[in-house]
Amino acid sequence: MNQSAAAAPVVPVTLDLRAFRAPPRSVQECVALWERLEPAVVTVDPLAGPRVRFDLGDEGEVGVWFLEPAAAPRPLGPGTPFAIRGVLEPAEVRNTCATCRTSGSTTYAPYRCPGCDEGRRIGRVCEAHAVFLDGSLRASCVRHAPVCRCGTTAVAWCSGVRCRSRTAWCETHLRRHPRDASVAYCADCHAERFPECEVGQCPSTGYIRCEHRTLAAMKPCGRRVCADHVRRWQVYGRYSRGVALCSRHHHGLRSTSPEDLIDIVLAGTVARASGKRWKSASNRRVQLPRISIVRHILINTRGTVLDMEDIDRLFTSLERRLRGLPSRDATVSSALDLLARHRTSRREDIERFRQQHVEGHAYFGRMVDALRRAGRWELADAVEFSDFRPGKGILFVKVPEHLVGLFKGRGQANVRQLEHQVGVSIQLERRG
Ligand SMILES: [Zn+2]
Ligand SMILES: [Zn+2]
Ligand SMILES: [Zn+2]
Ligand SMILES: [Zn+2]
Ligand SMILES: [Zn+2]
Ligand SMILES: [Zn+2]
Fold it and tell me: Which residues have a beta carbon within 5 Å of ligand 6, which is an ion?
């Protein structure tokens, strides 16, 4: 440098890096870039064009803007002092694709990839690198694509109640919805959504749960049964839906004691009384079945014929047992409530039964007389009164098994004749 050069004024410039792919990230890198450019910069005439561009090949272009071209020394030379007053950088892309970044390019990334999270900021992935699976709008990059529990690449998110589209599974571990293949479930969620019927090989879904429960164990059996295979224990009369039972519990009723059967009925009624479904289904309050119905339940279920008084006693002793419990939970309170409301109807039924009994016994007496008159002594001694239904005019009688044929006669002829003589229809009490 000579003396005149030393006095030369500083040439202010601005660098335009908007088309340069690897913009300097530090002052050192900026100085290094300038040192590469300077030999070319000093060969241009600032007045001829205040903005000049330099082609750096693969790296792109750098523009140099002379801010005061008229004041610059002419010609510029190796000794000319320059001052970089400003740098124009490419507009910053805030959400950039992590996958693209590793190959050196900057791409706008609209989706999140949790796997690409580099500590502070949530990771991002661009349109081209985003992977979407059925069942969720959640994205990831190719590298962090969800993996099934078995280690295989997942193909869909399970939309079932357990996974809630937060767990993804491979094709082998997914079961597609039969009518909508975009809806898939893992084995557990599928079993929850489409439970199998307890009857082997049954193709229907077991939507109904066995409602068998006892006061001591209010959690129901829960075994799944389809609508075709479910057994309804009609304890609320013919027109109310009975207790749904699985085959095992339906079968077990036959060998269950009257006390335990009433416990099951009470437990089932407590469950219905506390369930909203049943309250809204019928405006009536949920009630225990009348003992006239219970009597027939006991006859049909286990072949036990009890008087109304006997059945009333079953209820009162159950009530006494519950009152005697050291503590009352919600179940016991609700059961006692039902039993208290049941008491009135029990009294009514007993009274009606007594009247019918008197009326029925009159018909029964007439029938026994008719048998004696016909000389059928063995039958007259063995036959027993069971029940009388005045509405339908039916007299139920009990006849020992070995005399049933004799009692009925050929083609019911003997019974028909008795009915004619007594004036009511006569039926044998069903036994279990
Ligand atoms: Zn990308
Ligand atoms: Zn990722
Ligand atoms: Zn699932
Ligand atoms: Zn798998
Ligand atoms: Zn079934
Ligand atoms: Zn069951």
Answer: 210, 212, 221, 223, 246, 249
User: What are 81-116's pLDDT values in tens digits?
Assistant: 999 888 887 766 678 888 888 888 888 888 888 888
pLDDT digits (tens, 9 = 90+) for 26-70: 888 888 999 999 999 999 888 887 899 999 988 889 999 999 988
pLDDT per position as a tens digit, 218-253:
999 999 999 999 999 999 877 888 999 999 999 999
Where do we find the tokens 């124009």? 88
Pair 385, 359: CB distance under 8 Å: no
Q: Is residue 264 in a domain? A: yes
Residue 248: nearest ligand to its CA? 6
CATH classification at residue 414: 3.30.300
In this predicted structure, the answer to whether residue 200 has a pLDDT above a threshold of 90 is: no
CA 261 to chain centre: 32
**Identity of the amino acid at 184:** A
Q: In this structure, which ligand is nearest to the CA of 143?
A: 2
Whether residues 372 and 406 fall in one domain:
yes
Query: What single DSSP character describes residue 375?
Result: T
Q: Output the CA 86–ligand 5 centroid distance in Å.
A: 80
List the domain range (segments joined by +) for residue 269.
208-354
Q: How far apart are CA 307 and CA 292, in angstroms?
A: 9
CA of 248 to the centre of ligand 6 (A): 6
Domain boundary among 295, 319, 354: 354
